[in-house]
Design brief:
By secondary structure, the protein is α/β, with parallel strands linked by helices. The chain has 10 helices and 13 strands. Helix 3 packs across helix 4 and helix 7 runs parallel beside helix 8. The chain binds acetyl coenzyme *A (ACO). The site of acetyl coenzyme *A has 24 residues, from helix 2, helix 6 and helix 7.
């Protein structure tokens, strides 16, 4: 049996933050941000926690598939900004949606979270552990973003993407091949250290900046280009795919220069590479499902299309997933 993304939807918050917002109080400029990152605007979710962004997207996928909440038997929430340390955001979503028959949990793999969650959901469906998995990639990055630090404030945004994973209509369609990795040595370059058991929030020695993202931009940049390109290239070789065979490359959206460099290394032209970062910034676990959902909404996906998703993020975590589109 093979598994597929049977429906996908997204939620991006209403509040638009243009680059000019930061010019008012940080030593930065629209020109710098656009040139170095490709970001024009991002969305900030001011109203509530991460789960509140998941719910509208989840309601949309249930409506697309015409299924009731009680038919979902597993919920996976990929996020580094859960509502709470515990209970898991999956439990919050289960309660808010009324998915009475679902079990589930959260997956923490930063920007690669959606890929790791997709592989988990596919394994559950293929093994018969679950029939309909609600897979959510969502992050409220503003909850861990130091808005007074120009090195990070301009890069991130909030958002959610949700899909249903279930048996594919044809075993030649759906998720075909996967290449996933972690390397804990990279943890030092990208992290948030306070609030866990290492530096509990109650510890008086905790410095305010330790509640925010810590990122060494250049180390992350170089590794992201190399590993996303290598992982995608491996899947292309293993599945005998030439650049012309790829319908869409959907990369994690951290920086337009990273996205372009990956496309160039793989000889995949710009028009086949999904880009949303100009409008959303980096929404961590949500970038890939948001990009895929927008392609679906714009009717740019056809049955049988060859799509490769690829990501790199904190951990380090990275990888790629090859799928043939099979919206049911
Ligand atoms: N406005 C103006 N200047 C800035 C800004 C800003 N917003 N941000 C940084 N600068 C400055 C720096 O302070 C530095 O100044 P200095 O030379 O006086 O010290 C200068 O610009 C150049 O800094 P670099 O770090 O060399 O800039 P770079 O071209 O590498 O761009 C960036 C920085 C955008 C962070 C880039 O390295 C990047 O995108 N890295 C990858 C980020 C990423 O992938 N994150 C992963 C996801 S997060 C997750 O997994 C949770």
């Amino acid at each position: 049996m093979s598994a597929t993304i049977s429906a996908i939807a997204h939620y991006i918050p209403q509040t638009i933050i243009d680059n000019s917002y930061f010019e008012n109080y940080l030593d930065t400029s629209d020109e710098w941000i656009l040139k170095r990152t490709g970001i024009k605007q991002r969305r900030f979710y001011l109203e509530g926690p991460t789960s509140d962004m998941i719910i509208p997207a989840a309601k949309k996928v249930l409506a697309i598939r015409k299924i009731k909440p009680k038919e979902i038997d597993c919920i996976l929430v990929c996020t580094v900004t859960p509502d709470y340390v515990f209970p898991a955001t999956a439990c919050v979503v289960q309660d808010k949606l009324g998915c009475k028959n679902a079990w589930g949990y959260d997956i923490s793999a930063a920007c690669s979270g959606f890929l790791f969650g997709l592989q988990t959901a596919v394994s559950f469906v293929e093994s018969g552990v679950a029939r309909k998995v609600l897979l959510c990639g969502a992050d409220k990055m503003t909850s861990i973003l130091n808005l007074n630090d120009r090195n990070q404030a301009v890069l991130f945004g909030d958002g959610a993407g949700v899909c249903i994973i279930e048996k594919s209509s044809d075993k030649k369609l759906g998720i075909i091949d996967t290449d996933l990795h972690i390397d804990g040595e990279g943890g030092k370059h990208l992290k948030k250290i306070a609030g866990g058991s290492f530096l509990p929030a109650w510890n008086n020695a905790v410095k305010p900046e330790e509640h925010y993202i810590y990122q060494e931009g250049q180390a992350v940049y170089k590794n992201a280009v190399t590993e996303m390109a290598n992982s995608t290239s491996l899947l292309m070789k293993r599945n005998k795919l030439k650049p012309k065979d790829i319908t869409w490359l959907v990369p994690h959206q951290a920086n337009l220069r990273i996205i372009k460099a990956v496309g160039e290394r793989l000889d995949i032209p710009d028009e086949k590479v999904a880009v949303t970062i100009d409008k959303t910034g980096n929404t961590t676990a949500a970038t890939i499902p948001i990009a895929l959902s927008l392609l679906s909404e714009e009717r740019k996906l056809r049955r049988g299309d060859n799509i490769i998703l690829t990501a790199f993020g904190g951990g380090f975590t990275w990888g790629a997933i090859y799928l043939r589109w099979d919206e049911l």
